[in-house]
């Protein structure tokens, strides 16, 4: 699966933008590809000028295509003059995130239970100590 993102000159009309999108859609389908997420576009402000323009239409689409046919799509994109920049990336399927395996906490050693001493025994020991 691939994602094609590109910037289009903001000075073109909506009809011309629709024509650019149609050309690329047809190129993907002619190459034997399948569009999985249809084209989406919006006008954005750019962080820095691209070909002296501060705004552009950002357009992107997800599609499936054989690897050896990507070059034909790249050539098609390069042939359209109103496209300022483009990028094609490989999208990997998201992996299922599994919770990290945790080791069972070690049981804490219980302190030995203290034996209770009776008061009488304690008094007896104290007397023995004091007499000595």
Mind explaining what this structure looks like?
- It is a single chain.
- By secondary structure, the protein is an alpha+beta fold.
- It has a domain at 2-90: Alpha-Beta Plaits.
- The chain is 30% helix and 33% strand.
- The protein has helices at 14-30, 70-78, 119-131; strands at residues 2-8, 34-50, 53-64, 83-90.
- A 4-stranded antiparallel β-sheet has the order 2-3-1-4.
- A hairpin with a 2-residue loop joins strand 2 and strand 3 (53-64).
- The chain is rod-shaped, with a radius of gyration of 37 Å.
- It starts with a strand and ends with a helix.
- The mean pLDDT is 87.
How are the SSEs placed, and which strands pair?
Layout lengths: L1 E7 L5 H17 L3 E17 L2 E12 L5 H9 L4 E8 L28 H13 L1
Antiparallel strand pairs: 1-3, 1-4, 2-3
Helix pairs in contact: 1-2
What features would you highlight for this structure?
single chain; 132 residues; alpha+beta; Alpha-Beta Plaits; 4-stranded antiparallel beta sheet; 4 strands
């Amino acid at each position: 699966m691939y994602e094609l993102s590109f910037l289009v000159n903001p000075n073109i009309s909506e009809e011309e933008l629709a024509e650019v999108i149609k050309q690329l859609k047809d190129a993907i389908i002619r190459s034997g590809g399948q569009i999985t997420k249809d084209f989406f576009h919006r006008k954005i402000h750019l962080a820095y000028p691209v070909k002296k323009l501060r705004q552009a239409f950002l357009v992107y689409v997800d599609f499936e295509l054989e690897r050896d046919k990507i070059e034909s799509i790249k050539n098609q994109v390069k042939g359209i003059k109103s496209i300022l920049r483009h990028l094609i990336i490989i999208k990997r399927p998201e992996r299922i995130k599994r919770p990290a395996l945790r080791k069972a906490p070690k049981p804490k050693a219980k302190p030995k239970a203290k034996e209770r001493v009776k008061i009488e025994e304690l008094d007896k020991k104290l007397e023995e100590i004091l007499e000595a």
